[in-house]
Specification:
Layout lengths: L1 H25 L1 E6 L2 E10 L2 E12 L2 E5 L8 H12 L3 E5 L5 H4 L2 H6 L3 E5 H10 L6 E3 L4 E4 L2 E6 L11 E4 L4 E5 L18 H14 L5 E4 L8 H11 L1
Parallel strand pairs: 4-5, 5-6, 6-7, 11-12
Antiparallel strand pairs: 1-2, 2-3, 3-4, 8-9, 9-10, 10-11
Helix pairs in contact: 6-7
Length: about 240
Protein backbone atom coordinates (compact mmCIF):
# COMPACT_ATOMS: atom_id res chain seq x y z
CA UNK A 1 0.00 0.00 0.00
CA UNK A 2 2.82 2.36 0.88
CA UNK A 3 4.50 1.63 -2.45
CA UNK A 4 1.26 2.41 -4.31
CA UNK A 5 0.78 5.67 -2.42
CA UNK A 6 4.42 6.59 -3.02
CA UNK A 7 4.03 5.94 -6.78
CA UNK A 8 0.90 8.10 -6.88
CA UNK A 9 2.65 10.91 -5.07
CA UNK A 10 5.60 10.72 -7.46
CA UNK A 11 3.22 10.81 -10.41
CA UNK A 12 1.51 13.99 -9.20
CA UNK A 13 4.84 15.53 -8.27
CA UNK A 14 6.36 15.00 -11.70
CA UNK A 15 3.20 15.59 -13.76
CA UNK A 16 3.59 19.40 -13.82
CA UNK A 17 7.23 18.98 -14.85
CA UNK A 18 6.31 16.66 -17.70
CA UNK A 19 3.56 19.02 -18.86
CA UNK A 20 5.99 21.94 -18.77
CA UNK A 21 8.49 19.95 -20.81
CA UNK A 22 5.83 19.13 -23.41
CA UNK A 23 4.79 22.77 -23.65
CA UNK A 24 8.39 23.88 -23.87
CA UNK A 25 9.03 21.38 -26.63
CA UNK A 26 6.25 22.95 -28.72
CA UNK A 27 7.20 26.57 -28.11
CA UNK A 28 10.41 27.79 -26.50
CA UNK A 29 11.19 31.43 -25.75
CA UNK A 30 14.68 32.53 -24.72
CA UNK A 31 15.91 35.99 -23.80
CA UNK A 32 18.61 37.18 -26.17
CA UNK A 33 19.59 40.62 -24.87
CA UNK A 34 17.78 43.80 -23.87
CA UNK A 35 14.35 43.80 -25.51
CA UNK A 36 15.15 40.90 -27.86
CA UNK A 37 13.88 37.33 -27.58
CA UNK A 38 14.29 34.22 -29.74
CA UNK A 39 11.33 31.87 -30.03
CA UNK A 40 11.45 28.35 -31.44
CA UNK A 41 8.77 26.01 -32.79
CA UNK A 42 9.16 22.55 -34.34
CA UNK A 43 8.19 20.58 -37.45
CA UNK A 44 9.24 17.31 -39.06
CA UNK A 45 11.81 17.34 -41.88
CA UNK A 46 13.64 14.27 -43.22
CA UNK A 47 11.95 12.23 -40.48
CA UNK A 48 13.52 14.42 -37.82
CA UNK A 49 12.02 16.96 -35.46
CA UNK A 50 13.59 20.24 -36.56
CA UNK A 51 13.59 23.51 -34.56
CA UNK A 52 12.73 26.71 -36.39
CA UNK A 53 13.77 30.07 -34.93
CA UNK A 54 12.11 33.44 -35.03
CA UNK A 55 12.91 36.70 -33.27
CA UNK A 56 10.73 39.17 -31.45
CA UNK A 57 11.46 42.65 -30.17
CA UNK A 58 9.56 44.56 -27.50
CA UNK A 59 9.10 48.29 -28.13
CA UNK A 60 7.03 51.00 -26.49
CA UNK A 61 4.53 50.73 -29.36
CA UNK A 62 4.21 46.96 -29.32
CA UNK A 63 6.07 43.81 -30.30
CA UNK A 64 7.70 43.07 -33.65
CA UNK A 65 8.13 39.50 -34.90
CA UNK A 66 10.69 38.49 -37.50
CA UNK A 67 9.59 35.26 -39.22
CA UNK A 68 6.35 33.57 -38.26
CA UNK A 69 6.16 30.23 -36.41
CA UNK A 70 6.71 27.16 -38.57
CA UNK A 71 4.25 25.27 -36.39
CA UNK A 72 1.19 27.49 -36.84
CA UNK A 73 -0.57 25.82 -33.89
CA UNK A 74 1.89 27.78 -31.75
CA UNK A 75 0.88 31.21 -33.12
CA UNK A 76 -1.74 31.89 -30.51
CA UNK A 77 0.40 30.58 -27.63
CA UNK A 78 3.21 32.85 -28.85
CA UNK A 79 0.98 35.93 -29.00
CA UNK A 80 -0.47 35.16 -25.58
CA UNK A 81 2.98 34.57 -24.09
CA UNK A 82 4.22 37.92 -25.40
CA UNK A 83 1.19 39.77 -24.05
CA UNK A 84 1.37 38.07 -20.66
CA UNK A 85 5.11 38.50 -20.27
CA UNK A 86 5.49 42.02 -21.64
CA UNK A 87 1.97 43.48 -21.59
CA UNK A 88 2.37 44.26 -25.30
CA UNK A 89 0.50 43.17 -28.39
CA UNK A 90 2.29 42.19 -31.60
CA UNK A 91 1.88 44.94 -34.19
CA UNK A 92 4.09 43.80 -37.09
CA UNK A 93 5.69 40.71 -38.61
CA UNK A 94 8.33 40.53 -41.36
CA UNK A 95 9.21 37.33 -43.25
CA UNK A 96 12.75 36.80 -44.52
CA UNK A 97 11.74 34.56 -47.46
CA UNK A 98 8.75 32.77 -48.95
CA UNK A 99 8.97 29.29 -47.37
CA UNK A 100 6.26 28.16 -44.93
CA UNK A 101 8.63 28.27 -41.95
CA UNK A 102 8.76 32.06 -42.43
CA UNK A 103 5.32 32.99 -43.82
CA UNK A 104 3.01 30.22 -42.63
CA UNK A 105 1.27 32.22 -39.91
CA UNK A 106 0.53 35.32 -42.00
CA UNK A 107 -3.25 34.66 -42.26
CA UNK A 108 -3.51 34.07 -38.51
CA UNK A 109 -1.59 37.27 -37.79
CA UNK A 110 -3.73 39.29 -40.20
CA UNK A 111 -6.91 38.13 -38.49
CA UNK A 112 -5.41 39.44 -35.25
CA UNK A 113 -4.81 42.87 -36.83
CA UNK A 114 -1.04 42.36 -37.09
CA UNK A 115 0.57 43.93 -40.16
CA UNK A 116 2.49 41.39 -42.23
CA UNK A 117 5.37 42.41 -44.48
CA UNK A 118 7.69 40.80 -47.02
CA UNK A 119 9.65 41.88 -50.05
CA UNK A 120 7.90 42.07 -53.41
CA UNK A 121 10.04 39.17 -54.60
CA UNK A 122 8.95 37.08 -51.63
CA UNK A 123 5.32 37.94 -52.34
CA UNK A 124 5.75 36.97 -56.00
CA UNK A 125 7.27 33.60 -55.09
CA UNK A 126 4.62 33.00 -52.42
CA UNK A 127 1.90 33.60 -55.00
CA UNK A 128 3.57 31.31 -57.55
CA UNK A 129 4.21 28.50 -55.04
CA UNK A 130 0.93 28.69 -53.14
CA UNK A 131 2.52 29.90 -49.91
CA UNK A 132 0.99 32.50 -47.60
CA UNK A 133 1.25 36.08 -48.80
CA UNK A 134 1.91 39.29 -46.81
CA UNK A 135 -0.52 42.16 -46.52
CA UNK A 136 2.20 44.70 -47.33
CA UNK A 137 5.35 44.56 -49.47
CA UNK A 138 8.52 46.60 -50.00
CA UNK A 139 10.44 46.86 -53.25
CA UNK A 140 13.94 47.44 -51.89
CA UNK A 141 15.97 47.52 -48.68
CA UNK A 142 13.74 49.29 -46.18
CA UNK A 143 14.11 50.91 -42.76
CA UNK A 144 11.26 50.40 -40.32
CA UNK A 145 10.66 52.23 -37.07
CA UNK A 146 8.42 50.92 -34.32
CA UNK A 147 8.52 52.88 -31.08
CA UNK A 148 12.10 53.69 -30.13
CA UNK A 149 13.66 51.05 -32.44
CA UNK A 150 14.80 51.33 -36.03
CA UNK A 151 15.65 48.21 -38.02
CA UNK A 152 16.55 47.52 -41.63
CA UNK A 153 15.90 44.81 -44.19
CA UNK A 154 18.80 43.96 -46.49
CA UNK A 155 19.06 41.77 -49.56
CA UNK A 156 22.71 40.69 -49.71
CA UNK A 157 22.18 38.30 -52.62
CA UNK A 158 20.72 34.90 -53.37
CA UNK A 159 21.49 31.85 -51.26
CA UNK A 160 19.05 29.55 -49.46
CA UNK A 161 16.43 31.07 -51.75
CA UNK A 162 16.45 33.75 -54.43
CA UNK A 163 14.53 36.17 -52.22
CA UNK A 164 16.19 35.68 -48.81
CA UNK A 165 16.74 38.87 -46.83
CA UNK A 166 18.18 39.61 -43.40
CA UNK A 167 16.97 42.05 -40.77
CA UNK A 168 19.50 44.23 -38.95
CA UNK A 169 19.00 46.04 -35.65
CA UNK A 170 21.83 48.61 -35.64
CA UNK A 171 21.51 49.87 -32.07
CA UNK A 172 22.01 46.42 -30.57
CA UNK A 173 23.97 44.93 -33.50
CA UNK A 174 21.58 41.99 -33.77
CA UNK A 175 21.41 40.25 -37.16
CA UNK A 176 18.46 38.02 -37.94
CA UNK A 177 19.63 35.89 -40.84
CA UNK A 178 16.84 33.37 -41.20
CA UNK A 179 17.65 30.30 -43.31
CA UNK A 180 20.32 32.15 -45.28
CA UNK A 181 22.70 31.59 -42.35
CA UNK A 182 23.30 28.04 -41.16
CA UNK A 183 23.67 27.11 -37.52
CA UNK A 184 27.03 25.93 -36.23
CA UNK A 185 25.20 22.66 -35.49
CA UNK A 186 24.32 22.16 -39.16
CA UNK A 187 26.21 19.44 -40.99
CA UNK A 188 24.97 20.40 -44.44
CA UNK A 189 23.04 23.14 -46.25
CA UNK A 190 19.68 21.52 -45.59
CA UNK A 191 16.96 21.99 -48.20
CA UNK A 192 18.44 23.47 -51.38
CA UNK A 193 15.55 22.97 -53.80
CA UNK A 194 15.08 26.73 -54.13
CA UNK A 195 18.70 27.70 -53.49
CA UNK A 196 21.35 29.40 -55.58
CA UNK A 197 24.33 27.57 -54.14
CA UNK A 198 26.80 29.24 -56.51
CA UNK A 199 25.80 32.72 -55.34
CA UNK A 200 25.45 31.80 -51.66
CA UNK A 201 29.11 32.24 -50.73
CA UNK A 202 29.24 35.77 -52.16
CA UNK A 203 26.07 36.63 -50.28
CA UNK A 204 27.56 35.57 -46.94
CA UNK A 205 30.74 37.50 -47.72
CA UNK A 206 28.59 40.57 -48.38
CA UNK A 207 27.06 40.18 -44.92
CA UNK A 208 30.48 39.86 -43.27
CA UNK A 209 31.59 43.09 -44.95
CA UNK A 210 28.39 45.01 -44.25
CA UNK A 211 28.16 43.95 -40.62
CA UNK A 212 31.76 43.66 -39.35
CA UNK A 213 30.59 43.65 -35.72
CA UNK A 214 27.62 41.67 -34.45
CA UNK A 215 26.46 40.91 -30.94
CA UNK A 216 24.13 38.13 -32.07
CA UNK A 217 23.35 36.23 -35.27
CA UNK A 218 20.01 34.41 -35.37
CA UNK A 219 19.86 31.42 -37.69
CA UNK A 220 16.69 29.95 -39.17
CA UNK A 221 17.17 26.56 -37.55
CA UNK A 222 19.02 24.86 -34.72
CA UNK A 223 21.44 26.60 -32.36
CA UNK A 224 21.89 30.34 -32.79
CA UNK A 225 24.97 32.15 -31.59
CA UNK A 226 27.31 34.96 -32.55
CA UNK A 227 29.39 35.50 -35.67
CA UNK A 228 30.55 31.90 -35.92
CA UNK A 229 27.41 30.95 -37.83
CA UNK A 230 28.41 33.14 -40.78
CA UNK A 231 31.83 31.50 -41.04
CA UNK A 232 30.31 28.06 -40.54
CA UNK A 233 27.98 28.68 -43.48
CA UNK A 234 31.03 29.44 -45.63
CA UNK A 235 32.63 26.15 -44.54
CA UNK A 236 29.50 24.21 -45.51
CA UNK A 237 29.50 25.92 -48.90
CA UNK A 238 33.10 24.79 -49.45
CA UNK A 239 31.92 21.19 -49.18
Amino acid sequence: MRKVMYSILLYFFFLPCLQAQNEQASLEIKHLRGDFYVYTTYQSYRNMRVPSNGLYLITKKGAVIIDSPWDTTQCQPLLEAIEKRHQKKVVLCIATHFHADRTGAFPIFRRQGIKTFASQKTDSLSKARGEQRPEFTFAQDTTFQVGEYKFQTYFAGEGHSTDNIVVWFPKDKVLHGGCLIKSTEAEDLGYTGDANVKAWRGTIENLLKKYPKTNAVITGHQKWDKRKALHHTLKLLEK
